[in-house]
Automatic annotation (TrEMBL), chain A:
Pfam families, sorted: Cupin_7
Organism: Variovorax boronicumulans
UniProt-listed CDD domains: cupin_ChrR
Residues in coiled coil: none
Taxonomic placement: Bacteria, Pseudomonadati, Pseudomonadota, Betaproteobacteria, Burkholderiales
Signal peptide annotation: none
InterPro entries on file: Anti-sigma_ChrR, Anti_sigma_zinc_sf, ChrR-like_cupin_dom, RmlC-like_jellyroll, RmlC_Cupin_sf
Source organism, top-level taxon: Bacteria
Name the UniProt record assigns to this protein: Transcriptional regulator
UniProt domain ChrR-like cupin: residue ranges: 100-195
Automatic annotation (TrEMBL), chain B:
GO biological process, one term: DNA-templated transcription initiation
Pfam families: Sigma70_r2, Sigma70_r4_2
Lineage: Bacteria, Pseudomonadati, Pseudomonadota, Betaproteobacteria, Burkholderiales
Protein name in the entry: RNA polymerase sigma factor
Domain RNA polymerase sigma factor 70 region 4 type, chain residue ranges per copy: 136-188
Recorded coiled-coil stretches: none
Recorded family membership: Belongs to the sigma-70 factor family. ECF subfamily.
């Protein structure tokens, strides 16, 4: 896979320092799964965190801290393992693959939101308010022109779109914010499926488009 | 602050020792090795959590919980893929994020997806390794950063609402914080490549 668009250092640092909202982190994780380059970059930033942690002064622990930790460990080992929760995601076309990052999430069936446009809401157990969704748009169709209140992270799972700035294909990651006004247009030849998360809402240019946005909670 | 060239032979290989302790926990459930990890990391994790806003009692609890996770997940630790400090930091960081979320009234999940769960499907890159040796070089590289870059990096990892608060704290514009952070990361990358 030829990945051309990667998250920048700011985002990877926000991830490593634990400052990304859950939904954004999930989209980024789905990029890291596919991209050894960014995985390496992210790991290096985790390593920086590790070294800074290592060099911190020690805060004194309670006298019985180790004993209590052993007690917790022993209690854990006799406890039943929690059942793994996996909900069936909506079907994908041949050749597309669900990110493992979504394995603990659930997603609704594909829902019609316009001609050639379908949508699936992803529920993230650790943050029910996280705005994460899948978009499935037919070849030649496009999302209405919009800008963003907060940030919009997008990971392309299948197919390609061009948003006036660049062409995005499978494995590519995009971060758009208030400074970006774009109109993602799916290229001819194949439908496009993206995983996206919004921190804040989108602002659509036209009235019909605003209605569309309200429809899917974007 | 001692200045260590990234190329100088690393002296006491602490990272190696921690990695060995991790492996001993994973393979033999070695309680002495775990006690060593505990006495080094638990107090630092507690400090880390207190710095990012947890009250002392909660930080104590979470630091213990972090070490419980170290014990339980030790088998997932691969010394060829990450230094022990990296791996333990990721656990502490996830706990900190969870604690913040709980303070906001959201349920937590301990199954955050992280590197220990990700496939290593590209041996060429994995071989460039972030093992203990690589980590020693990174330690050297960190010390070569200009002090103002070290400072923003440090605050980025340890403050709760980082960039805006850092800007206020240092009385510099937000844009300056962001550019220092970017410079620091780029500089680290350069130092690591040589
Ligand atoms: Zn990448
Ligand atoms: Zn957008």
């Amino acid at each position: 896979m030829d990945i051309r668009h990667h998250p920048d250092d700011d985002l990877l640092l926000a991830r490593s320092s634990g400052h990304l909202p859950v939904g954004m982190r999930l989209v980024l994780a789905s990029h890291l799964e596919l991209c050894p380059l960014c995985r390496e970059r992210a790991r290096a930033l985790d390593a920086v965190g590790g070294l800074l942690l290592d060099e911190l002064e020690a805060a004194p622990m309670a006298d019985d801290a180790l004993a209590r930790t052993w007690a917790r460990i022993d209690a854990h080992e006799s406890a039943e393992p929690a059942p793994v929760r996996v909900s069936a995601p909506p079907p994908l076309p041949p050749g597309a693959r669900w990110p493992r990052a979504l394995a603990h999430c659930s997603a609704t069936p594909w829902r019609w939101i316009g001609p050639g446009m379908r949508w699936s809401r992803v529920s993230v157990p650790e943050d029910p308010a996280a705005n994460v969704f899948l978009l499935r748009i037919a070849a030649g169709k496009y999302l209405p022109q919009h800008t963003h209140q907060g940030q919009e992270f997008t990971q392309v799972l299948h197919g390609c779109f061009h948003d006036g700035r660049a062409l995005f294909g499978p494995g590519d990651f995009d971060a758009a914010d208030a400074e970006i006004n774009h109109q993602p247009v799916v290229q001819d030849g194949s439908e496009c499926i993206c995983l996206a998360s919004l921190d804040g809402r989108l602002r659509f240019d036209g009235a019909i488009a605003r209605f569309f946005g309200a429809l899917v909670g974007m | 602050m001692t200045v260590v060239s990234p190329d100088s032979p690393p002296s006491p290989r602490l990272d190696d020792l921690w990695a060995q302790a991790m492996v001993a926990v994973a393979q033999r459930q070695d309680r002495d090795a775990f006690a060593q990890l505990f006495s080094h990391f638990a107090p630092r994790i507690k400090h880390y959590l207190m710095q990012s806003g947890s009250p002392a009692i909660q930080a104590e609890e979470l630091a213990q919980e972090a070490l419980v996770t170290v014990w339980r997940k030790a088998a997932l630790f691969d010394p060829a893929r990450a230094a022990a400090t990296t791996w333990i930091f990721a656990i502490a960081r996830n706990l900190r994020v969870d604690a913040l979320r709980r303070r906001q009234g959201v349920q937590s999940s301990e199954d955050a997806v992280d590197f220990d769960l990700l496939p290593s499907d590209d041996p060429a890159v994995e071989d460039q390794l972030h093992d203990a040796r690589q980590n020693e070089r990174l330690r050297g590289a960190l010390r070569l950063l200009p002090p103002e870059q070290q400072q923003v990096l440090h605050l980025s990892y340890f403050e709760d609402a980082p960039h805006a608060r850092i800007a206020a704290q240092l009385r510099i514009p937000l844009g300056t914080v962001k550019s220092r952070v970017r410079l620091a990361v780029a500089q680290l990358r350069r130092l690591m490549e040589h």
